[in-house]
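Database export, one record per block. Field names are fixed; values are copied verbatim from the stored entry.
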Amino acid sequence: MSLIKRTNGGFTPFRTMLSDFFDADDLTFNRLMKNESMPAVNISETDKSFQIELAAPGMEKKDFKVAVENGVLTISAEKKEEKEEKSRNFTRREFSFNSFSRSFTLPENVKQEDIKAHYEDGVLKLDLAKKAVTVSKAKEIAVI
């Protein structure tokens, strides 16, 4: 037996919104109120390298941490912002915190020591150089 989700008439966007709310695994206040967004990533490949472009507007170079460990590339960022405004009759203090972390398993042909990162116009660009692939020649072994 299999279950199939169907929409049987009614106002579909409203049904979808209710389904998103009630069918969620995590109904905590944090999930509902927090702006959970993972930056979009484009990955492309040329003969000599892989390119990763990660959309992260509003960040600065110092906010990013890019690390490679055991064949896994991890890109993370953390931005804290705090504003305080004082007037004669009131004090307003606002703060925000935004962070994310994305990890990618690298193919074996990536030179892990030759990864370059550049942040410009809200896009973090990484260039992952490829190793030269060596093809081993087939060798026939005589059976004695």
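Remark 1: The chain has two helices and seven strands.
Remark 2: The two ends are 59 Å apart (CA to CA).
End of record.
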